[in-house]
Amino acid sequence: MILIEHLLLGAAFVLLLSILASKVAVRAGVPALLLFIGLGILAGSEGIGRIPFDDPWAVQAVGVVALAFILFAGGMDTRLRNIRPILREGISLATVGVAMTALTVGIFTHLLFGFTLAEGVLLGAIISSTDAAAVFSVLRGKDINLKRLLKPLLELESGSNDPMAVFLTIGMIALVNDPSASPLNLIPAFFLQMGIGAAIGLGVGRLMQVVINRIRLEYDGLYPVLTIAAVALTYGAAAALGGNGFLAVYLAGVVMGNGDFIHKRSLIRFHDGLAWLMQILMFLTLGLQVFPSELVPVAGEGLLIALFVILVARPVAVFISLIGTHLMVREKVYIAFVGLRGAAPIILATFPLLAGVEQAETIFNIVFFIVLTSVLLQGTLIVPMAKWLGVYSQRPLIGFSPLTYVMEDGEITDNIVEATVMPNSYAVGKQILDLHLPSGVLVALIGRNREVIIPNGGTVIEVGDHLLLVTRPEVREELITQLCGTSSLKDG
Fold first, then answer.
1. Torsion-angle region of residue 101: left (phi > 0), alpha (psi -120 to 50) or beta?
2. Which domain CATH number covers 420?
3. In this predicted model, what pLDDT tens digit does every residue of 99-131 receive, in sequence order?
4. What single string gives the DSSP state of each residue in 422-467?
5. Which residue from 43, 50, 52, 55 is spatially nearest to 15, judged by alpha carbons?
6. How buried is 139 (Cβ within 10 angstroms: 0-12 exposed, 13-18 middle, 19+ buried)?
7. How many angstroms separate the CA atoms of 141 and 296, rounded?
8. Which CATH number belongs to the domain containing residue 116 in this structure?
């Protein structure tokens, strides 16, 4: 039996190594997820860690939960004003693009490697979606500055195409296991799943805004717990009712991220950190499930299929999906190149294992090899390819806006204080410069006799002045005591 202290030490050590790996990855220009998977492989039964692990159900469970939180965090960080101009293109890539990739890969593997057409399309469906965790970490981690609307389009596609890939994977598994079933049955199932998922996601997202604003919990630390429950509820309810849970959680995140509710900024930051933890956990688990000795026999097939996806299937899907759009050819070429595969295909590859598909083991190993190839080739060339195609902007990224940062949260009482100067205040008759306010305190505005004064160091404080102060939470009490005494005080 493993002692709990040993388990905690091991978990802490692996997490710290993963964090260090992310730093190394950024400096080396390698996607962090590649190093996370590598750590998992090293810790596995054929690595130096020798941890015995072969449990597709556990991998799938961890992956589904992790992807749900990653998609929710990605949705919360998506601004409608940024994606509205490219919404049609994003939806087309997330649906038509995914279907075209699955079909072309299916035909290719059927003709060259002896898979049945249904098995080939199943393999294509599994690797058809770009991975949200991979794309978000690469594009945001490198602070890539792309021209026009390429970056929001790529993020929108990666955040919204997993539902289609999941639908096609489950549908093709049913067709492989029951050849007599009609592919036409997938059409009504598609609209049913997406409709239920979208309805629940939009509904829960809007409901959570109302709940968070009205519930007024006694402890601020419970708000993240509330949103965690919301993510689980959204995915669980959508999946239980026959809908697409991944679409539901992504849309719930988008609705919440573009709404107004208290503690918004802190909750977005919390879920961003949680998404990173989920990425680490997911990729480590995927690495544990892989047996490197089993990858060698499929290396040839995997490499050829990976190159076909990168050079043929993905470009064909992108150009067909974006017919009639305003995008230039070089932009379409870049979108085709940034088709990073990551954790989502590996997780989907566990579905055939659990469903008893005959070629399931081979499919899983091929998918894993394809993901490694995609990350190594595409992930490391994101910036060079952008510069070569002329879609990399030399203009500096928009700087950090302190006002936006503060006002983005629905409740800013920790930073803004409004105070009325009473007759017994020591500040009466003194210049602001002579008040010796605590470090980190700024008198931003003064309301006096229905006038607004923008103060400077020489402004004299008078009885009845209404002060708007920006302060750090830890000096609030000291400020109240020094400046206002027993004066009335209210939060901003």
1. alpha
2. 3.30.70.1450
3. 999 999 999 999 998 899 999 999 999 999 887
4. PTT-TTTT-BGGGG-PPTT-EEEEEEETTEEE---TTPBP-TT-EE
5. 43
6. buried
7. 32
8. 1.20.1530.20
